[in-house]
Amino acid sequence: MKNKIFYGLLTAALFAGLSSASRAQLFGDEIADNEFSRGNYRKALEYYNEMAAKDRSGKYLYKIADCELELKNYAEAEKHYATYLEKHHSPLAVRLNYAQALMYTGNYDAAREQLVLFKNGNPGKDVYRADVMLKSIDYARQHAETDTNEKFSIIKSNIQLGGLYLGGNSFRDALLTTKPADANADAPQYSFASYPYGLDKPYTAVTYTDSINNKFYMGAPSFTGDCKTMYFTANKSATDKASPKQYSKSNLSSSGRNTLTIFRSSLKDGKWTDITPLPFTSNEFSDTHPFITPDGRHLYFASNRPGGFGGFDLYYCKSEGKDKWSAPLNLGGKINTPYDELNPFALGDTMLYFSSEGKTGYGGADIYYCHGQEHRWGEPENMGPGFNSFADDFGISFDTSGTYGLFASNRDTRKGVDEVWYFSRVITYINGGGLTKDKFNGTTLPGVQISIFEQGRTEPVATLTSDKEGNYRYDKFEPNKKYLIRGDKEGYLRREVQVDPRFTAMDKIDLSLDPKLKKNDVFAFKDILFEYNKADLLPASVSTLNRLAELLIVNSEAIVELSAHTDCRGNDGYNDRLSQRRAESAVNYLVSMGVNADRIIAVGYGERKLKNRCRDGVPCSEEEHEVNRRVEIKVIDMKQLSQM
Question: Is 0.85 topped by the overall pTM?
Answer without folding.
Answer: no
